[in-house]
Amino acid sequence: MLLSEFDYALPAELIAQHPAPQRAASRLLHLDAKTGGLRDLRFADLPGFVDDRDTVVLNDTRVVKARLYGRKPTGGAVEIFVERALGEHEALALMRAGHSPKAGTEVLIGAVRATVLGREGELYRVRFSEAVESVLERYGTVPLPPYISHRPDPGDAERYQTVYATAPGAVAAPTAGLHFDGAMLEHLRRRGVRVAKLTLHVGLGTFQPVRTARIEEHRMHREHYRIPAETLESIAGRRVLAVGTTVLRALETFALRGESEGETDLFITPGFRFRVVDRLLTNFHLPKSTLLMLVCAFAGRDNILRAYGHAIEQRYRFFSYGDAMLIER
């Protein structure tokens, strides 16, 4: 399939720059993929779609303060976006500077020295003079997506994180989960819904544009996932509602490989056969993105593009801080 088949025109003013005043106050567009029917709802209506036959699966990854700002000894500004730690002192990172850093280049981040060891594809292997975790905690900032124009503020430190985030390691939030507050999760449990968790550390690949005209030529970045045994038990023989594309990719990776922990580069495009997930709660995704291709695979391209057109007409808020969509197959 061609990349151009997954495009749509989005007015810039519909890109949400800030979250809703309360987590569960967002809107919810319901799509019945069997009939193509659309309903405009509120996120507070979600419990009406689940009962004691369902398991809702969440991604408990926690966003780390992955963006660092430093300077070369010569004074040149450098931005380091840590993709993942490789050990106590080393990490893979994107680096932005006036000139591409070479092996041996040093960057000063406060009292910390970061030394470029070499390149691995688009990323740089960097060694820090202090533990990576400590450096990010002391000097890092919340890695807001590139389409959010403001610098991170204290509110972002809280709201660009799910209320159930416990496993540090992501560089982007699993944004479908940002709509949940404690009261919503308790409401689901009172209805007899099982709430289960897994971990998939969202990597830089979530922002990586597709640069090939034919989508099958695109290669996904790898992301680490882990599915606890109790989560696998809780979904067996039950209807599964995946909260976000990361949960869906982890569960469908397990169904394909039989591995509850590992690295996934699963690229889901139209024609994929879903084995685990029955329903998907997700935000609205960027044009020509791998995530838009995933939801097109789940619900049908025509259904999704029509739903997105409806969302634009009805002035839904798009992307990470935007509104939600519930897709039933």
Which secondary structure elements does this structure contain, and how are they paired or packed?
Elements (H helix, E strand, L loop, with lengths): L26 E6 L4 E6 L11 E6 L1 E3 L3 E5 L5 E9 L4 E8 L8 E4 L2 E9 L2 E6 L3 H8 L14 H6 L7 E4 L11 H9 L3 E7 L22 E4 L2 H7 L3 E5 L1 H13 L3 E4 L14 E5 L6 H10 L1 H13 L10 E5 L1
Parallel strand pairs: 1-17, 3-12, 3-14, 4-11, 14-16
Antiparallel strand pairs: 1-2, 5-6, 6-7, 7-10, 8-9, 9-10, 12-13, 13-15, 16-17
Question: What features would you describe in this structure?
Answer:
There is one protein chain. The chain is α/β, with parallel strands linked by helices. It folds into 2 domains: 3-63 and 153-328, 3-Layer(aba) Sandwich (QueA-like); 67-139, QueA-like (Thrombin, subunit H, Beta Barrel). The protein contains 7 helices and 17 strands. It has helices spanning 132-139, 154-159, 182-190, 229-235, 245-257, 290-299, 301-313, and strands at 27-32, 37-42, 54-59, 61-63, 67-71, 77-85, 90-97, 106-109, 112-120, 123-128, 167-170, 194-200, 223-226, 239-243, 261-264, 279-283, 324-328. Strands 2-1-17-16-14-3-12-13-15 form a 9-stranded mixed sheet. Strands 5-6-7-10-9-8 form a 6-stranded antiparallel sheet, covered by helices on one side. It is globular. The relative contact order is 0.21.
